Amino acid sequence: MQYESFNLHFLLHSASLVEERLRLQLAALDTSHRQARILDALDRMGQASQARLAREFDLTPASMSTMTVRLLEAGFILRARHRDEARSNVLQLPDKGRGLLAEIRSIWREMDRMIETTIGHEKAEQLAALTRELRDAFGGRVPGQMPGETNQLPLVDVKNDTPNCQTERTERKQDD
Predict the structure, then answer these.
(1) Mean of the per-residue pLDDT values for the chain?
(2) What does pTM read for this prediction?
(3) Interior angle at CA 70, CA 40 and CA 88, nearest 5
């Protein structure tokens, strides 16, 4: 019996394998992939309400609350009063969270290197460009970027950890 092959499955399987390797690396920091992305977003945004973070990540407020509670309890993020709205709280990234984020970014660089070592530099760059294009086409974006505003964020050259000539187009979202 012949079976039809679907290209989608190659993408999903590869993403699953990469995510599992990332999960194992982040487990040493007692952090999940999604928590790492929250820390990264707060670093770029400066501060944000939990409701805004939920919108940025397209999650329910309850799901975002679950994801941030451990980060709050561990002191990796802090809750503070909103400077303009006394009844509102914002989440911020303290030095302890920035330290964890530095370790996370080191793991992310290692993951980029692993992909490059596995499929080669040129293919790794092509893969990154194609997956960004796919994300953008499906309406994905970098959390914290405002709609309609185009920013050019440098992509990191995994060989030497420096920005290369390629950039990522992102959209910004206004603050609460």
Answers:
(1) 84
(2) 0.78
(3) 75
